[in-house]
Write a structure and sequence with these properties.
Blueprint: H1 5-25, E1 39-51, E2 59-69, E3 78-83, E4 89-96, E5 102-113, E6 119-138, E7 141-155, H2 157-161, E8 167-177
Antiparallel strand pairs: 1-2, 1-8, 2-3, 3-4, 4-5, 5-6, 6-7, 7-8
């Protein structure tokens, strides 16, 4: 009499493979209660840690962040655009996480602000990362958010020629939908 064990093992392996394949093919959407990030937000940024950056405790008011979701409904990847201190815009994708936050990061060239008030373009290579926790639901979308922004700036050759120093900043974010 033939044993049914190999057949049952093959059947279990097939079921596992099909479940894994279907989970990989599913659209990238958030799990849990993540709110949709969409629209323009007025953001207050507070410096919480700094090395050769703005003073700890310094507050930047009236910053603009905009989130453009890449799906029609629900929580999904949202492209964030924020206006920097020098007026330039930084745009990159934020992705919903299982813990209800959105995270994203990017790199870009940036200016060095000299003590005499001058500005040197392309003096830094910036690495930026953001964590945003949507709050105050307005339907399925967020009406506000809290979060953190982390910047690491490394001088380029141009920056080194102008004595721009390596540094970093961490900022606490508080945004309200406009």
């Amino acid at each position: 009499m033939r044993s049914r064990v190999p057949f049952l093992l093959r059947l279990a392996a097939m079921a596992f493979t099909m479940a894994l394949a279907s989970s990989l093919a599913a659209p990238v959407q958030a799990t849990g209660a993540t709110l949709r990030l969409s629209g323009s937000f007025q953001v207050k940024e507070t410096v919480t840690a700094s090395h050769n950056g703005d003073a700890v405790g310094h507050v930047f008011r009236h910053r603009k962040f905009r989130f453009a979701p890449t799906c029609k409904n629900g929580a999904c990847k949202s492209v964030m655009t924020r206006v920097r201190q020098d007026g330039t815009k930084v745009t990159y994708a934020t992705h919903p996480q299982a813990d209800g936050t959105y995270t994203g990061s990017t790199t870009y060239p940036g200016a060095c602000f000299l003590r005499n008030g001058g500005t040197v373009a392309n003096a830094y290579h910036y690495r930026e990362s953001v964590v945003v926790r949507p709050a105050a639901p307005s339907g399925t979308s967020a009406a506000s958010f809290k979060g953190t922004l982390r910047l690491v700036f490394t001088p380029t050759a141009i920056g080194n020629n102008h004595n721009c120093t390596k540094g970093s900043e961490s900022l606490k974010l508080s945004g309200v939908k406009q």
